[in-house]
């Protein structure tokens, strides 16, 4: 089992390249950056994490700008989206950004994707929250066509384009792993249909039972990576027993003096599990 970290790369915290460099130097295998283009000030949709939404949610750098900085600052670290809100993105532009970061990083990109929880945020991007599942599904499938083919076309209800050329292609072939985030009732169906793996949160309901269900239903190997895992060796052991491929903890946003103690706590839990 590999170990990574997640981080909201805010403009007033540790810079994306710097935290990525430190994570690589300390032996972590991956870093994942969160994405929110904005948070609607009306705050109608309840945040799943509690009553008070942390300020970092509307102070993050652009996801792909942050990922590029992380790629340039490292040479081995896997860099990923945790998660990219595909429901709020143009698929042709996003396919270009994914391919560009993967190419620039030498094939180190992990494409975590999610539906998003903030309904007003989706609406501001022109997506009806009631249609977010088919919208995301089509956009992912359209992006795959762009990555796989020199000349790509796609015709669906929510995405439609005639023959296009778009380069670079991703360094990873056929493309970076698409990790489907979420813990809703249909998420495993979506992973099986168009994912390379599942990307749940520790807090998702019945997550360990559902990992077993996914593996039982799959006709190919599907990796499982988990976000928001607590820095507790017992939690890590539970993930290891369930066959999770990589676990990542969310680090606090801020200067190194804020980030370092949380990272050390995570590393202490890893050391207790692994004995090194």
UniProtKB/TrEMBL annotation:
Key words, A-Z: Flavoprotein, FMN, Monooxygenase, Oxidoreductase
A Pfam entry, by short name: Bac_luciferase
Domain named Luciferase-like: residues: 18-218
Gene3D superfamilies from the UniProt entry: Luciferase-like domain (3.20.20.30)
Top-level taxon in the UniProt lineage: Bacteria
UniProt cross-references to InterPro entries, sorted A to Z: Lucif-like_OxRdtase_Rv2161c, Luciferase-like_dom, Luciferase-like_sf, SsuD_RutA_monooxygenase
Protein name: LLM class F420-dependent oxidoreductase
Native organism: Paractinoplanes aksuensis
